[in-house]
């Protein structure tokens, strides 16, 4: 036992406590830059996203519900979402993603006089790897009923 005390006293005289203190400080610095700082940055980004919400923005809730913002009550901290004609009220904290609506470009005289060309939207087509959406299934069911008559 006396050997342990003697060894501790010799290490303390050589600056052993100071090096231990430096190691502890370095661990806290590394922990700050790897855990605390990124967390604060992410929290600030989320606060900016929630503060920037406005009526008409497309959103996704934490439960995966997609909809459009109908109204925002900042005093109560709630958001009313229009999900295909169904109006649902959620807390602001339940919003995961906000996709702002793009502002309509200002039309000039040259743009209003030119006729608009029709474009083909490839995203509405179902490819081999995609499953049909609910709308596609409804139209297929209607076609099947018409064939049966």
TrEMBL record:
Q: Which domain of life is it from?
A: Bacteria
User: Has the keyword Membrane been applied to this entry?
Assistant: yes
The record gives the membrane topology as: Single-pass membrane protein
Annotated membrane-spanning segments are 18-36
Report the main location listed first in the record.
membrane
Instruction: Report if keyword Signal is assigned.
Output: no
- The segments labelled Disordered in the record are 99-149
Q: Where would you find this protein in the cell?
A: Cell membrane
**Residue ranges, compositional bias (Basic and acidic residues):** 134-149
Q: Which Pfam families match?
A: YajC
Family to which the UniProt record says this protein belongs: Belongs to the YajC family.
**Designated name of the protein:** Preprotein translocase subunit YajC
Organism of this sequence: Lapidilactobacillus gannanensis
Q: Which gene encodes it?
A: yajC
